[in-house]
Write a structure and sequence with these properties.
This protein has 139 residues and is of the alpha+beta class. It has a single domain, classed as Sufe protein. Chain: A (Alpha-Beta Complex). Helices cover 52% and strands 14% of the residues. The chain has 6 helices and 2 strands. The protein has a two-stranded antiparallel ribbon with strand order 1-2. The two termini are 28 Å apart. The mean pLDDT is 94.
């Protein structure tokens, strides 16, 4: 999986927004295959115009809970946004997730201003879902 640092570096090299969109789509293509049995109502993210699923699994590592995410969407650009969100939160502790500021990262990358309102709302729903899963895992 591509790291957030690599995404930042790659974005810095791409001046044209068409190229950045293509890059985001390519990030989505790199997501692991999403198991068909995970495409269910429990994993569906509400508030997205596209179909979006996020499955969360917690593991214990050195006495700390870490959250692992798998996701998919029927829209190529949204799959790329999922990949960026996962680069931010994958295998983090609930505390790290709750302290993170995904919106600041999307603003820093310039994506926040280039997403439609519908995509921005969907992105917010994905982040809210992950933060909710982190809250549940923390308790």
């Amino acid at each position: 999986m591509t790291t957030l640092s690599e995404i930042r570096d790659d974005f810095a090299l791409l001046d044209d927004w068409e190229d950045r969109y293509r890059y985001v789509i390519e990030l989505g293509r790199q997501l692991p295959q999403f198991p068909e049995e995970f495409r269910n109502d429990e994993n569906k993210v509400r508030g997205c115009a596209s179909q979006v699923w996020i499955a969360t699994r917690s593991t214990e590592e050195n006495g700390q809970t870490r959250l692992h995410f798998e996701g998919d969407s029927d829209a190529h650009i949204v799959r790329g946004l999922i990949a960026i969100v996962f680069a931010l939160y994958q295998d983090a502790t609930p505390s790290e997730i709750l302290q993170g500021d995904a919106q600041a990262v999307f603003t820093e990358l310039g994506l926040a201003e280039h997403l439609t309102q519908q995509r921005s709302n969907g992105l917010a729903s994905m982040i809210a879902r992950i933060r909710n899963d982190a809250t549940v895992a923390a308790n």
